[in-house]
Amino acid sequence: MELFFADIGSNTTISWKELLKDLNRSTTYNPYCYHSDFYEIFKHIILSLLLEEELILLDSDFSDEEVDKLTGCSNFSSFTKIIDPRKLPVISLKNELISKIKNTGPQWNITLFTSGTTGMPKKVKHTFQSLNRFVKITEKNTDDVWGFAYNPTHIAGIQVFFQALLNGNSIIRLFGLSPDLVFNSIEQYGITHISATPTFYRLLYPINKIFPNVVRITVGGEKFDEKTIDKLKPAFPNSKITNVYASTEAGTLFAAKGDVFTVKAEMEEFVKIENNQLFIHKYMMGLTENKINGWYNTGDIVEIVSENPLQFRFVSRKNEMINVGGYKVNPNEVEEAIRTINGISDVRVFAKSNSVLGNIICCEIVKFDENLDEAKIRSFLQTQLQEYKIPRFIKFVNELSTTRTGKIKRN
Amino acid sequence: MERIKTIINTILKNRGKKDIDSIDENTNLRDDIGFDSLDLAELTVRIEAEYDVDIFENGIVNTVGEILQKIERK
């Protein structure tokens, strides 16, 4: 049996043959993908590719409020369409499926949501071409087995999915599993490639086993953490470890050894650094709601290490996004949600550095309703925001600490 | 031990989960209590606020006994 997907957590294994059977049996299509099951998400993406239909990918943990705000509706059943069988010819072979997907036309697109700078998550649209610019398809990759360690509805997860799909690899779910199940999965399925955030790897420690079958470890989504990476080496002695920089708007852009990123010659004309700020040319980007004229400011502050070839190191993010274990949280969005609670007069959301997740969301609240406590606020926020955006530590104060310019201080 | 239990129950309550009645040194934070990475992160903040020690500084701890060791070693 040629394995397409396996998940020890839910006891699922799906072969490529079963995938084809499921696809061939599909009779309806809905452009909104709002599942928590990994296989359902993958199947939905593949079906949209075969039909060349638009797909809107929603995080399964978006609250009803968030879904309603983002899409303007909370029930998507009215969008279900009957599939015209002429548009979905029966596919009986794995290679046939892959070559059909490789020929996806420019009209197919996928919408993802990323933390916007104004408070609401913003839409980013990608075409097949913009998503797969960095997918490596070679003979050498045919037998790769991917440990899938990202959220499947986020850009990093989508890119790993396409890398595996287009090479005909097996995908093994690791995201959200306990360390023991992660270790069992790596061994049982002979995983060769893992791509994940530093937080994912940190949560595996201590690793008392050795996994010689893993040949490539990729780290991305958060600031590179040398201490974390050093601890990986003994458990994965045969693995090359690379650090990647990616954004929802552009996907994977640069790879680094250690913390110095090198811009490849073919990328040079699409990257510029001005006043230590990193700009990416619109050619590299997915389509965002805001039109980008020529150059897009990533908001990242970098330090140039060498000019030729262009090499740099990240210093900090200019914008206020807080990175919680690879998820970007906009403090303004969280503050807005908290301000809607009765009995609260003011709030300041900030990050506190944390040894598990890199950062953790905290807030100070000025309240005038004495009965309001942390548990009440948290339970209300659970109906408004995704769990990782909810402050984990709430301090009630008489007055917020502000910076000298009167702006709310973030750190 | 009682103090740790109170902290664990605060975290569970904040997420709308059920309290636990008893813990011992072998109680596993993830398998027995059901903590995810966000809960573990919150646990570090609360323990640090109270005992001034970052229990995850040198790698993840898995059981209540390991937390107690870290606090005592301080």
Largest interface here, residues on each chain? A-B, 28 and 21 residues
Percent in helix of chain A: 10-25%
For the record, give the distance between the C-alpha atoms at the N and C termini of chain A, rounded to a whole number. 53 Å
For the CA atoms, what is the radius of gyration of chain B?
A: 11 Å
- Amount of beta strand of chain B: under 5%
Largest sheet of chain A: 13 strands, mixed
Helical proportion of chain B, percent range: 40-55%
Number of strands of chain B: 0
Shape descriptor of chain B reads globular
Low-confidence stretches of chain B: none
Number of helices of chain A: 11
Main β sheet profile of chain B: none
Task: List the helices and strands of chain B in order.
Answer: HHH
- The SS-based structural class of chain A is alpha/beta
Could you tell me the mean pLDDT of chain B? 89
Number of helices of chain B: 3
Q: Looking at the structure, what is the overall shape of chain A?
A: globular
Task: Explain this structure.
The complex is a heterodimer of chains A (411) and B (74). By secondary structure, chain A is of the alpha/beta class. Chain A is 23% helix and 31% strand. Chain A is built from eleven helices and 25 strands. Chain A has helices spanning 16-24, 38-51, 64-71, 94-102, 128-131, 155-166, 179-188, 198-202, 226-232, 331-339, 374-381, and strands at 3-7, 12-15, 28-29, 32-33, 55-57, 81-82, 109-114, 122-127, 145-148, 170-173, 193-196, 216-220, 240-247, 251-257, 260-262, 271-274, 277-281, 287-288, 295-306, 311-317, 322-324, 327-329, 344-354, 358-367, 393-396. A 13-stranded mixed sheet of chain A has the order 2-1-10-9-11-12-13-14-15-20-19-17-16, sandwiched between helices. Chain A has a five-stranded mixed sheet with strand order 4-5-7-8-18. A three-stranded mixed sheet of chain A has the order 23-24-25, with helices on one face. In chain A, strand 11 (193-196), helix 8 and strand 12 form a beta-alpha-beta unit. Chain A starts with a strand and ends in a 15-residue tail after the last strand. The relative contact order of chain A is 0.09. Chain B is mostly helical.
